[in-house]
């Protein structure tokens, strides 16, 4: 069964750091505009199903992005002829994403250094 | 901020969101169906994958909300629903708080009116009144003049006195009360007239030179119907013409906060209404009631006190036989000589009201704690479903605030009604005494803030409970898993509350018992079956020297009324009426120089007619009563009370026939001794008193004492007929002596009433407290009790298990409260006559009352515990 097939990685939304979900949404939207369901699918596929995002948790994040005008939304009809609300990243959203990614990379670097004692033991 | 468009757009935003989420779940379900699931399975799986839809939708909406306000509104609506679901709790909590807040608002209103609020005059902060060693401002008129002219501290010094007069605008003499004031009175106060003009120092040109009258606004309104043409009219005061020159402003009600006068006249004309002149006699220390004025800029009260004392000492040196200076101090004008007593009384009330509030708060605390415990399942469920603890706490606080607001508002409403009633209340129809209560927003604000604080503080009692709650445990086993055996916070609160209530019950019982006892105390005369006919012959135009003849004729006439046993007369007022005692300086017979430092005693002095002692019911211990021959031409004689006889001559039997000297040096022979009595107040220690023949000092102001077994109304009518036969124009005021004692009983009655009400409130609070605790513990242990009964427990054992704890707490609290109450009652003894806590009746009464309260409060829970049906109960689980 498809649902049962998914790997049981420990990954509730709470385990993401604050802002991670927003970052992933913005990154997905940079590639192409999408509606909520498609975004969930995209994030799950791109992460090789390692990140099992609770589908609903996307929506509070989307609302936050909408409110800070990092994305905009429009009702429309999808290729499969469904009524969908499509999100699109704004210029401000792009800028925000750049900043977030660079700060995330710095953080990741730091964490990696701490977790990798071979490299850190020099000092 | 873009929140204004947000508000309008919000509905669209929310609708979009719901629609979007619905479509999302639909799409997922379709996908799953394509993969081969049944519709039902697919829809379930889609919802599971989505997560907690309601919570997520709320989170999404919260993004747009103006966060605090809107969620507070949601909390409020939820709180109202919750409270409606628990009407018992809500009712008890609101009522508890309303009682406490109401009591505090009333007491605060009284304190504000009497103590906090200054007189309604310009610059009240520098206005001071003089106060002498015995806390009164009385002094003689010549002394006042000297003080006014010699002091360096006051801008100017004014003084006033009380006068009672018949005011006649044509043919309608009506008794009115006023101030006779020095000419500079209004100028010192810097008050401007509402109508016409005031009198000034320049109007005074010696005795009876300024026949002017200023009406108070209230009196002008009620007696003259706001007639602006009244200025310039001539009215008769005790048959003397006075010209109305003005009306005082509405907010100015004289210089004594609880006695507002009908009119003001210059003190130089006081003789025309009071019958005796005070202008000349320096030794008449009760000539003027009080002198007051604004301190000069830069002069401190301490400097002014030193200054006033220096002038007083100087006067004593200059007039040794007429002046004895008592160290004086200053007090804020408005209460001066009544300040201490009033402050003590109001302070006592404040303490008691505070105790009520404390008891109510502990009651609230335990109510909230029980309420929270009852809801622990609900709280656990909400926690398990993902609600945050802060959100739940905020919810509890919202409920607490709601209850405090409702309780506070209810209490304030009640206090408004009560304060209005109190301010219209004139305890004595014949005296202009009332409480100047003008409750304003300030008082209600304080009350509401008090309510909020107490609701908030005690609404958070259950916080710890909530924070500690483990949702999984509670949901699994139910709330009664944690049945603590040790003392909980709730138990402690209950003990404190019961202790406070026991204090209140004890003090109210002590007060009531004291009052009952003071009703039966021997006051040295028998006020029952005695009527008083108060005469003011001056009101009918009789001068002092003509008065005795008419008085004698009146005594004779009243004596002829059938059923009248004795008639006597006393000048001014008899003992204990209007607290109108006059003291005399008395010297030992061997004293040659009657100067103040040689005064041996200052007994109360009454001028009485023959037959007075029989009429008053005062028993003669030795010697004889006066006779009509004891007049001006006979040797001076006196009747002394036992205390005076003992002090002056060592014993009663020694006294008869012995002599003492008066202020003027004259020798007076004691011809009789009567029993001791009370003269000014019921709480006074035993005072000496002397009685002199009224015929030797004629006075147009007198009271006829009539002893009879007849019905007072019939007798009064007969007396009225007799008086009008003698002089139809004489105002007649007849009352029973007993009624006239109301003034004396007033403080202790008010105290008893206040304490009684507070005690009742305490009792009510302890009933609700014990009831809540007992009902709660029974309902929590219902299952256990059922099992006990099923296993064969006896009624007694069941009760012990169910209520043993409540009874123990009750006993603990009562004992603590009783001990505290006994300590507190010592304070009471100052207000209430013979209030002693070491009274077995009071002690057993308190114990009985608390036991009864306990019985009453535990009755229903006990019935419930006994009627447990184990079968039904166990099946229910």
Largest interface: A-B, 22 and 25 residues
CATH class of chain A: Mainly Alpha
Task: Please give the largest β-sheet of chain B.
Answer: 7 strands, mixed
Taking the alpha carbons of the first and last residues of chain B, their distance comes to: 55 Å
Query: Using only CA atoms, what is the Rg of chain B?
Result: 37 Å
Can you give a write-up of this model?
The complex is a heterodimer of chains A (123) and B (877). Chain A has 123 residues and is α+β, with helices and mostly antiparallel strands. Chain A has one domain: Winged helix-like DNA-binding domain superfamily/Winged helix DNA-binding domain (Arc Repressor Mutant, subunit A, Orthogonal Bundle), CATH 1.10.10. Chain A has helices at residues 2-5, 20-31, 36-46, 58-67, 91-115, 117-120; strands at residues 34-35, 71-77, 83-89. Chain A has a three-stranded antiparallel sheet with strand order 1-3-2. In chain A, a hairpin with a 5-residue loop joins β2 and β3 (83-89). Chain A is globular. Chain B contains 28 helices and 21 strands. In chain B, the strands form three sheets. In chain B, strands 13, 14, 15, 16, 17, 18 and 19 form a seven-stranded mixed sheet that branches. Chain B has a six-stranded mixed β-barrel with strand order 2-3-8-5-7-6. Chain B has a four-stranded antiparallel sheet with strand order 12-20-11-21. The relative contact order of chain B is 0.10. The A-B interface holds A 2-3, 35-37, 54-57, 59-60, 62-64, 66-67, 73, 75, 82-85 and B 16-17, 19-21, 23-24, 27-28, 32, 35, 45, 49-53, 56-57, 59-64.
């Amino acid at each position: 069964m498809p649902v049962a097939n998914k790997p049981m990685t420990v990954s509730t939304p709470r385990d993401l750091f604050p802002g991670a979900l927003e970052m992933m949404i913005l990154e997905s939207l940079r590639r192409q505009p999408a509606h909520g369901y498609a975004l969930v699918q995209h994030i799950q596929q791109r992460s090789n199903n390692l990140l099992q995002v609770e589908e609903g948790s996307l929506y509070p994040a989307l609302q936050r992005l909408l409110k800070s005008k990092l994305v905009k939304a429009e009702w429309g009809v999808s290729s499969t002829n469904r009524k969908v609300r499509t999100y699109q990243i704004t210029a401000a959203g792009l800028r925000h994403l750049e900043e977030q990614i660079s700060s995330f990379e710095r953080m990741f670097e730091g964490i990696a250094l701490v977790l990798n004692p071979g490299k850190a033991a020099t000092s | 901020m873009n929140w204004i468009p947000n508000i309008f757009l919000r509905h669209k935003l929310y609708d979009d969101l719901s629609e979007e989420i619905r479509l999302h779940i639909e799409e997922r379900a379709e996908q799953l169906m394509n993969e081969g699931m049944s519709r039902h399975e697919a829809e379930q799986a889609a919802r599971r994958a989505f997560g907690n839809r309601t919570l997520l939708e709320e989170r999404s909406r919260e993004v747009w909300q103006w966060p605090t306000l809107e969620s507070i509104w949601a909390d409020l609506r939820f709180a109202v629903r919750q409270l409606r679901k628990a009407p018992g709790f809500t009712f008890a909590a609101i009522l508890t708080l309303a009682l406490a807040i109401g009591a505090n608002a009333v007491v605060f209103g009284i304190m504000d009116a009497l103590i906090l609020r200054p007189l309604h005059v310009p610059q009240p902060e520098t206005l001071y009144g003089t106060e002498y060693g015995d806390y009164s401002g009385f002094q003689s008129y010549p002394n006042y003049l000297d003080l006014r002219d010699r002091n360096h501290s006051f801008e100017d010094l004014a003084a006033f006195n009380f006068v009672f007069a018949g005011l006649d605008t044509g043919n309608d003499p009506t008794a009115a009360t006023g101030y006779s004031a020095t000419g500079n009175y209004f100028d010192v106060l810097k008050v401007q007239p509402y109508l016409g003009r005031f009198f000034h120092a320049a109007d005074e040109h010696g005795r009876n030179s300024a026949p002017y009258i200023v009406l108070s606004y209230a009196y002008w309104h009620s007696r003259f119907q706001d007639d602006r043409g009244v200025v310039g009219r001539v009215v008769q005061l005790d048959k003397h013409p006075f010209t109305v020159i003005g009306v005082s402003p509405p907010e100015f009600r004289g210089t004594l906060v609880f006695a507002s006068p009908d009119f003001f006249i210059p003190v130089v004309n006081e003789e025309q209404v009071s019958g005796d002149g005070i202008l000349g006699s320096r030794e008449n220390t009760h000539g003027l009631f009080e002198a007051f004025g604004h301190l000069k800029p830069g002069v401190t009260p301490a400097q002014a006190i030193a200054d006033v004392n220096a002038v007083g000492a100087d006067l004593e040196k200059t007039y040794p036989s007429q002046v004895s200076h008592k160290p004086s101090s200053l007090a804020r004008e408005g209460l001066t000589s009544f300040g201490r007593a009033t402050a003590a009384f109001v302070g006592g009330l404040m303490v008691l009201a505070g105790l009520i509030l404390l008891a109510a708060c502990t009651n609230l605390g335990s109510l909230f704690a029980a309420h929270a415990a009852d809801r622990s399942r609900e709280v656990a469920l909400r926690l398990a479903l993902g609600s945050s603890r802060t959100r739940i706490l905020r919810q509890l606080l919202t409920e607490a605030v709601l209850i405090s607001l409702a309780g506070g508002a209810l209490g304030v409403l009640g206090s408004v009604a009560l304060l209005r009633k109190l301010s219209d209340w004139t305890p004595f129809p014949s005296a202009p005494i009332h409480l100047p209560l003008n409750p304003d927003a300030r008082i209600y604000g304080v009350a509401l803030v008090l309510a909020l604080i107490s609701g908030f503080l005690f609404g958070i009692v259950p916080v710890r409970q909530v924070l500690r709650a483990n949702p999984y445990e509670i949901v699994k086993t139910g709330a009664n898993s944690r049945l603590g055996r040790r003392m909980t916070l709730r138990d402690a609160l209950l003990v404190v509350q019961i202790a406070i209530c026991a204090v209140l019950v004890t003090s109210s019982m002590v007060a009531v018992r004291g009052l009952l006892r003071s009703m039966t105390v021997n006051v040295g005369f028998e006020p029952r079956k005695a009527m008083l006919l108060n005469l003011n012959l001056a009101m009918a135009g009789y001068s002092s020297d003509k008065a005795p003849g008419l008085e004698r004729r009146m005594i004779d006439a009243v004596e002829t009324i059938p059923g009248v046993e004795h008639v006597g007369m006393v000048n001014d007022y008899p003992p204990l009426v209007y607290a109108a005692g006059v003291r005399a300086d008395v010297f030992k017979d061997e004293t040659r120089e009657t100067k103040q430092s040689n005064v041996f005693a200052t007994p109360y002095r009454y001028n009485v007619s023959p037959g007075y002692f029989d009429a008053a019911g005062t028993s003669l211990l030795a010697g004889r009563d006066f006779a009509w021959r004891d007049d001006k031409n006979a040797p001076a004689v006196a009747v002394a009370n036992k205390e005076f006889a003992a002090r002056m001559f060592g014993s009663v039997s020694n006294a008869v026939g012995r002599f003492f000297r008066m202020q003027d040096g004259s020798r007076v022979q004691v011809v009789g001794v009567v029993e001791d009595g009370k003269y000014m107040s019921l709480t006074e220690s035993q005072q000496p008193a002397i009685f002199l023949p009224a015929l030797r000092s004629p006075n147009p102001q007198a009271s006829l004492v009539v002893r009879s077994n007849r019905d007072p109304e019939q007798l009064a009518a007969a007396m009225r007929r007799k008086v009008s036969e003698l002089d139809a124009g004489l105002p007649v005021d007849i009352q029973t002596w007993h009624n006239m004692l109301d003034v004396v009983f007033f403080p202790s009655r008010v105290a008893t009433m206040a304490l009684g009400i507070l005690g009742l409130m305490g009792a009510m609070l302890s009933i609700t407290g014990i009831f809540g605790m007992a009902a709660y513990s029974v309902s929590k242990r219902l299952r256990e009790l059922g099992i006990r009964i099923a296993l064969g427990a006896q009624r007694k054992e069941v009760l012990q298990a169910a209520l043993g704890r409540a009874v123990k707490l009750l006993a603990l609290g009562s004992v603590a409260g009783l001990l505290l109450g006994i300590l507190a009652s010592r304070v009471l003894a100052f207000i209430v006559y013979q209030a002693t806590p070491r009274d077995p009746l009071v002690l057993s009464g308190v114990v009985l009352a608390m036991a009864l309260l306990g019985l009453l409060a535990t009755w229903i829970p006990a019935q419930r515990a006994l009627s447990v049906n184990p079968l039904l109960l166990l099946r229910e689980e």
